[in-house]
Design goal:
The complex is a heterodimer of chains A (about 300) and B (about 270).
Chain A (H helix, E strand, L loop, with lengths): L21 H30 L2 E3 L5 E3 L5 H42 L4 H12 L6 H11 L5 H8 L13 H25 L3 H9 L4 H12 L1 H16 L18 H11 L3 H26 L6
Antiparallel strand pairs in A: 1-2
Helix pairs in contact in A: 1-11, 2-6, 2-9, 2-11, 6-9, 7-8, 9-11, 10-11
Chain B lengths: L1 H30 L18 H4 L5 H34 L5 H9 L6 H15 L5 H26 L2 H9 L4 H30 L2 H6 L6 H11 L3 H35 L1
Helix pairs in contact in B: 3-6, 3-8, 3-10, 6-8, 7-8
Classes of the chains: A mainly alpha (about 300), B mainly alpha (about 270).
């Protein structure tokens, strides 16, 4: 199934003794690797190079290749709130998505295991949002949660929000949209791990007089760690770099701009590629450091 | 005992609510495809079938969908061919740099779209390629490639090597073994990868936004139109794509079921 791509723990039935043959390997590998080099690694180099360019005013205003680290200082100086907000939103949205997804994935993977048709139907419903345009489902929320919508009237009547307050445009609305849009990325890897969870371990735990919460903490949770790790990574990374949800045209406002917002603005609106690329490199670097630390701490490097 | 029945009740109710939550925007989009709205499709104004009968009422919308379909098709073919070759090499052959290759194929999936988009834009700018149809395809192949490799790899790992050994024992040449045994067994994985690529390409916004130039894809059309007022035909297109995709998923599942039952009978 397509969603196998979202989980790193694919069944590992042994593929037998790999064959050795230099020419064939090269023929298989080279086209793809050349493509990867040309359109992934070289762009990264181009990104870093642009981010270090220096503005020169003589004879005319232009940018020159340099090691101008000042660009990074400027970017941090100018965009610190957006940088902190991006990682803050990503952190909060990932946690909420995990809390919502875990019981759902547990139900689909363990509780309805004996009913494969229902199980497959539920998995299809989890991935259903992928099949409708990402922008349109975000616009749908924007309209459903708009100030004059019936949903908001109801929420106001519940007293969750003041009579003259709006929800769209707040950080809460952006986090809400991020959680919604990335729940499938969290649920699927959790599901694939939990689906293979051997329930006899849980029975053994409760036979030995462990309370349900203790069984969960000591057995279920550790066994589902691979799913939690790939799920949180698959959610955190795209959220930290998201542009759509926080945009003023969707769920956000000028007060919710994230790193993505500033990169798009610098690259495409104010035409300042040095700033846009420095910010991108900063985002990428921070994410790589976070992944490395996180995966090391979780002790499952084989996931990569 | 009472506690037990309560917990039995909580899980299904929770799962149903969570799934409903995921479906809300889809239902909304579908319902509003029947709205009698001309330009701003935000307020319900009455039921009509006009939008469905005339999905090309906005010519520019239909052009954008056509562009998206073409880009998705071309990118999918290229990404699937390159990615399948990589996946086979990674599982079936031992070579020194194998883990390095795996890692470098994982990296694009760990890269935020915004970074990949800005990187490609920098590259195209510095070597002087004008942004347009070609640059969008080059970018789409790139972000689909890693997903193809992961999906096909899972399938190659599940292959039973004894089947290939049996073919070789019966004097099949390595080419015959590959095309008559290995490849047909890989087809479901390759198909899944192709579908995933197609969906990723068709729905991509950020990377396309950075590299499109004057080309307008379906997501770019929505993005621009959303500011002024989205025509209900956009909902028609999105709903049709949704229904087609769901149909494809259900059809493959039903087909898989029938095949499995036949195999069980044969045994």
């Amino acid at each position: 199934m397509a969603f196998a791509a979202f989980s790193n723990n694919t069944p590992n039935k042994n593929s037998g003794a790999p064959v050795k043959s230099g020419k064939i390997v090269l023929a298989l590998l080279l086209p793809g690797l050349i493509y990867l080099a040309m359109f992934f690694f070289i762009p990264l180099v181009a990104l870093i190079q642009t981010s270090l360019e220096k503005r020169v005013t003589t004879p005319s205003v232009h940018f020159e290749a340099a090691w101008n680290w000042q660009n990074y200082v400027d970017v941090i100086d100018r965009y610190l709130p957006q940088i902190l907000r991006s990682f803050g939103y990503a952190f909060v949205a990932t946690i909420i998505a995990l809390l919502i997804s875990y019981p759902l994935a547990y139900f689909i993977g363990v509780k309805v295991r004996h009913r494969p048709v229902l199980q497959r139907l539920m998995v299809t419903l989890v991935i259903a949002p992928f099949f409708i345009s990402f922008l349109l489902r975000t616009i749908a929320w924007k309209q459903l949660l708009a100030d004059n919508s019936a949903t908001m009237d109801f929420i106001r009547q519940l007293g969750l929000i003041g009579p003259n307050e709006s929800f769209i445009g707040t950080g809460g609305a952006v986090v809400f949209g991020l959680v919604y849009n990335f729940i499938p990325f969290m649920t699927l890897p959790l599901y694939t791990t939990l689906e293979r969870l051997d329930v006899r371990y849980l029975e053994a735990g409760s036979d030995l007089y462990a309370s349900p919460s203790k069984v969960f903490r000591k057995v279920t949770l550790p066994l589902s760690m691979p799913g939690i790790i790939s799920g949180t990574l698959l959610t955190f990374i795209p959220i930290a770099g998201d542009y759509v949800n926080a945009s003023q045209d969707f769920l956000g406002s000028a007060d919710t701009s994230m790193i993505g917002t500033m990169v798009v603005q610098d690259q495409l609106v104010t035409n300042n590629p040095q700033s846009a690329t420095a910010l991108s490199v900063l985002l990428m670097g921070t994410i790589l450091v976070l992944i490395t630390v996180y995966v090391r701490r979780a002790g499952t490097e084989e996931l990569l | 005992m009472r506690k037990l029945s309560a917990s039995k009740f909580i899980f299904p109710v929770y799962a149903t609510l969570a799934l409903l939550f995921l479906l809300i925007p889809i239902i909304y989009t579908f319902v509003f495809s029947f709205n009698q709205a001309n330009r701003r499709n935000t307020v319900w104004q009455g039921f009509t079938l006009d939008n469905w009968l005339n999905p090309c009422g906005r010519q520019d919308l239909c052009d954008a969908v056509g562009t998206s379909l073409l880009i998705a098709l071309v990118s999918t073919v290229i990404a699937t061919v390159l990615g399948t070759a990589l996946a086979i090499a990674l599982v079936r052959y031992h070579f020194r740099a194998r883990s390095a290759v795996s890692l470098s194929l994982f990296l694009p999936m760990a890269t935020p779209e915004i970074v990949m988009g800005a990187g490609l834009a920098s590259l195209f700018f510095s070597i002087g390629i004008e942004r347009g149809f070609l640059t969008v395809i080059l970018a789409h192949v790139m972000f689909c490639l890693s997903f193809v490799v992961t999906t096909v790899k899972a399938r190659v790992q599940m292959l039973d090597p004894t089947l290939e050994e049996a073919a070789a024992d019966l004097y099949a040449t390595p080419q015959q073994v590959f095309w008559k045994v290995t490849f047909p067994l890989l087809v479901p994985g390759i198909m899944a990868a192709a579908l995933l690529s197609f969906a990723l390409s068709f729905d991509d916004f950020i990377i396309t936004y950075f590299n499109a130039g004057n080309v307008t894809t379906f997501p770019l059309f929505i993005y621009v139109a959303a500011k002024g007022g989205l025509p209900p035909q956009a909902n028609v297109i999105a709903s049709s794509v949704f229904l087609l995709a769901i149909f494809a998923v259900v059809a493959t599942q039903v087909y898989g079921n029938i095949k499995r039952k036949r195999l069980a009978l044969a045994k």
